[in-house]
Every structure is written in structure tokens, then in C-alpha cells.
Specification:
Strands 1, 4, 5, 6, 7, 8, 11, 12 and 15 form a 9-stranded mixed beta sheet that branches. Strands 2-3 form a two-stranded antiparallel ribbon. Strands 9-10 form a two-stranded antiparallel ribbon. It contains 12 helices and 17 strands. Helix 2 runs parallel beside helix 8 and helix 10 packs parallel to helix 11. The protein has a single domain, classed as Alkaline Phosphatase, subunit A, CATH 3.40.720.10. With 458 residues, the chain is of the alpha/beta class. A hairpin with a 6-residue loop joins strand 13 and strand 14.
Length: 458
């Protein structure tokens, strides 16, 4: 056997186990993914607030909590709590009504409040895990106990990409803690569904770039020759042994990386954006620059055909996890994201993109109405707020409710599985039909659960 044939045979054997990734990858990159029914949204921007923003201090006012401040809670606490909790703690912020809908928003978000008629406030969201790691995995993957494909990966698997030259799923400045790569990983789904990270949460978004993306002309020419040669070898291997078609998966990833060299540098370069646009996102202000840059990148990726973009607000010190110093921490965090989020919503709307772009805002859980350490709040997965905008949801609407003090989801409750089912539905995907066979069973994002919140659909 010749050395070339030996090498091809070795590569073919090594590739077994990738499945039919190549075929699906080519379909996906051509935008050949199929929805199950007409979609209301084509793409998703997920604004993730790591640490758990307090719903009762942002979008879910509780007058009884103000009235009974300092009293013992008049309800049973969960059997398992993350930390010791004290008496009731009222919100230090005032709520005011905005827009034609008259929905209340706290003083933490004066800019987002101006967009309230585009927002659908989901006040009855709840999960099962009070710890950051488990709750983040649940929100991102639908499971807090096993490694499962992320929400973005499922969406890419179902719909494919609209751009051959960029990844279908990009996560900007993701946190490496509490699940890390599993929060944007594809697990057992095909490799092309994997999220592509840009930067990390612990570094400035100025550094959120795909590195080494611009080769010299000579290197680019050599790359093209190498890829063409690998393609010829692999094509013959597939003819001789159809099972080795999986080799195309690896070659497909090389091809995408090659094509990204022509598109990614332009997509991640904000220098062409007008001064007015950068001001809209707060890129001109040191307080809002970091998150504003992420939001502006998200819009640029979406208008270039990226299917799912996540931007993460986090840092190594404060995040949204205020077990103490609630006022100082939430004030700092909201000031950093309020104007950029409003800028993103206004920009998408002015470009006609909000109609088919689903924007989602939220954290892994909310906070308790009881005090921790006198001036903080504990983790609360039992009832919290997520909001959506655009992408086929009813704007200027509050759906669901927590109890009078904001501890438990009580009316029109939405478990995280219901949230995922509704997101997929807006994208034209039936969460019960979008499955992948692995290890002898069919898996899906919602496992064996999930109900679509039909009432919020426009």
C-alpha cells in the first residue's frame, strides 16, 4: 500500500465517530436548515446578565414589599435556600410607568424604559437550581446535571446559517466560570453548531476579536492549495468507503476558518460605524463603552447572517450577584448596560431588523425579597423576570406574575423549559420535533417538558 493510501486510510479511521457532520455542515452553511412552520424570527440576540439581576428592583414592582419592609416574610421559604435569609427588604428604587402600555420600570433602567412598548415582560419565569453553575447550565442547555447542547447550538442545528463566511453562533465576552464552554458548546450535536467565543468576560470587549484572522497573501495562497489537496484525498476516500464521509466535517471546519479570513475582520471592525451610531450605543462613554461595543458587534453579526449571538455582562468583581451592597452593585451594573441595550433596540428597529430579530434579556435567576446581610439579596430561582423584544412577541405586555412579595412564580408560570419551547417556536421550530438521536435515544433542548406561551405571540 502506498504511503498516501496508508495516510488516507488512517485519516478515514480516525474520523469515524464524527457521524454525518460534513453533509449537515454543508447544508447548514448554505442556509438549508428547515423550519417546521412559518417563523416569526430569523435570528436571536441573547443579552445575558450573569449573576442574577433582581426582578423586584427592575421590572416587577411589589408595593406590599415596600409596605412590609423589615418584617419577617409572611410565607414559607423554600426547603433548600442558598444562604441564610432575613426579613423583607424593599426596593431602594422607585418605579414609574412608561409608554402607551404604561408598564412600570425602575429608575435603574431609564433608557430601556423608553423602549417599553417593544418589550414583553415575562414575570413568571422559574427554574430549579439556586446555584450559579447549575442555573446557568439550565438556562443555556436545558439541563443542570449533564453536558447537553446549548440553546444556540440547537437553533443552528435546526435552521443552519445565512452566511457561509461567518460562524452561525457567536458568543461575545462569555464567562469561563459556572459551566464555561458547556454554556455555548454543541455536545453531541454536529461540530458546526458549536458557539464561537470572542474574548472573555474578564477582559475588555476591545479585545473581543478572533485572533490571527488576517494572514499574509502568501500564507492565504498556501492555505487554499492545502485545502484543495485535502479535498481531493478525502473525495477519493469517500468513494472507496462511504462511511468515511465524516472526514468532510474536519475539512468543512478548515474551509470555514479559511473563509472567515475574508469576512470576520470587517465584521468585527467598528471603525466604519458613524459617530452618531457609536454614541447611540454608548461607545463614546467610559461607563457604557464595554457593553455598548458588545451590543454593536451583535447587531453587525446579525445583519451579516449570524443566527445566534450572545453578549454577556459580567466582570470578575461585581457581576449582578449582590448578596450585599445591593444598591451600589445594581446601580453600577445597570448604568453599564441600560443605554447600550436601548441603543440596540432602537437601532434594530430603525433598520427594520427588530421584526425578525428576537432579543432576549435575563440572568440565570432573580433575587429574593428577603434580605441577606442587611443590604443584599440571595439567589432566587423560584420566580424571576426575563424579557423579550421583537421577533414576533407582543410588545408593551407583561405576562405572568410572581406572588405579592416576588418570591414565587404564581400565575402564567414559565419554567425554563417553557421559555426554550417558546423561543424555538418563534423561530419556526417545534421543540418536540427538533431532536437528535444519541446514545440510543432522541434528545431535545426541552427534554420531555416544555409548553409554548401562546399568549405572548403577536
Amino acid at each position: 500500500m502506498s504511503p498516501i493510501l496508508q495516510r488516507r486510510q488512517f485519516l478515514g479511521t480516525a474520523a469515524l465517530g464524527f457521524g454525518q457532520v460534513a453533509f449537515h455542515s454543508l447544508l447548514a452553511s448554505d442556509g438549508a436548515g428547515q423550519s417546521h412552520f412559518p417563523a416569526r424570527a430569523k435570528r436571536v440576540i441573547f443579552l445575558f446578565m450573569k449573576g442574577g439581576p433582581s426582578h423586584i428592583d427592575t421590572f416587577d414592582p411589589k408595593p406590599l414589599l415596600d409596605r412590609d419592609h423589615g418584617k419577617p416574610p409572611p410565607f414559607e421559604l423554600p426547603r433548600v435556600t442558598f444562604a441564610k435569609q432575613g426579613n423583607l427588604l424593599k426596593s431602594p428604587w422607585q418605579f414609574h410607568r412608561y409608554g402607551e402600555s404604561g408598564l412600570p420600570v425602575s429608575d435603574l433602567f431609564p433608557h430601556v424604559a423608553q423602549c417599553i412598548d417593544d418589550l414583553c415582560i415575562l414575570r413568571g419565569v422559574h427554574g430549579t437550581n439556586p446555584a450559579h453553575g447549575g442555573a446557568m447550565l439550565k438556562l443555556h442547555t436545558g439541563s443542570d446535571t449533564f453536558v447537553r447542547p446549548s440553546m444556540g447550538s440547537w437553533i443552528v442545528y435546526g435552521l443552519g446559517s445565512e452566511n457561509r463566511n461567518l460562524p452561525s453562533f457567536v458568543t461575545i465576552c462569555p464567562t469561563l466560570a459556572h459551566g464555561g464552554v458547556n454554556n455555548w458548546g454543541s455536545a453531541f450535536l454536529p461540530q458546526y453548531c458549536q458557539g464561537t467565543p470572542m474574548g472573555t468576560a474578564s477582559a475588555s470587549s476591545r479585545e473581543a476579536k478572533v485572533k490571527h484572522i488576517t494572514p499574509s497573501a502568501s500564507i492565504s495562497s498556501d492555505q487554499r492549495k492545502q485545502l484543495d489537496f485535502l479535498g481531493k484525498l478525502n473525495a477519493q476516500s469517500v468513494r472507496e468507503n462511504p462511511e468515511v464521509e465524516a472526514m468532510n466535517a474536519r475539512l468543512g471546519s478548515f474551509e470555514l476558518a479559511y473563509r472567515m479570513q475574508t469576512s470576520m475582520p470587517e465584521a468585527q471592525d467598528l471603525s466604519g460605524e458613524s459617530a452618531a451610531t457609536q454614541k447611540l450605543y454608548g461607545v463614546d462613554d467610559p461607563v457604557t463603552e464595554d457593553f455598548g461595543r458588545q451590543c454593536l458587534l451583535a447587531r453587525r453579526f446579525c445583519e451579516r447572517g449570524v443566527r445566534f449571538v450572545q453578549v454577556t455582562h459580567s466582570d470578575s468583581e461585581v457581576q449582578w450577584d449582590q448578596h450585599s451592597n445591593l444598591y451600589q452593585g445594581h446601580t453600577k451594573n445597570a448604568a453599564e448596560v441600560d443605554k447600550p441595550i436601548a441603543g440596540l433596540l432602537k437601532d434594530l428597529k430603525s433598520r427594520g431588523m427588530l421584526e425578525d430579530t428576537l432579543v432576549i434579556w435575563g440572568g440565570e435567576f432573580g433575587r429574593t425579597p428577603t434580605a441577606q446581610g442587611g443590604n443584599g439579596r440571595d439567589h432566587n430561582p423560584h420566580g424571576f423576570t426575563v424579557w423579550m423584544a421583537g421577533g414576533g412577541v407582543k410588545g408593551g405586555r407583561a405576562y405572568g406574575a410572581t406572588d405579592d412579595y416576588g418570591y414565587y412564580a404564581e400565575r402564567d408560570k414559565m419554567h425554563v423549559h417553557d421559555l426554550h419551547a417558546t423561543i424555538l417556536h418563534l423561530l419556526g421550530l417545534n421543540h418536540e420535533t427538533l431532536t437528535f438521536r444519541h446514545a440510543g435515544r432522541d434528545f431535545r433542548l426541552t427534554d420531555v417538558h416544555g409548553t409554548v406561551a401562546e399568549a405572548i405571540l403577536a
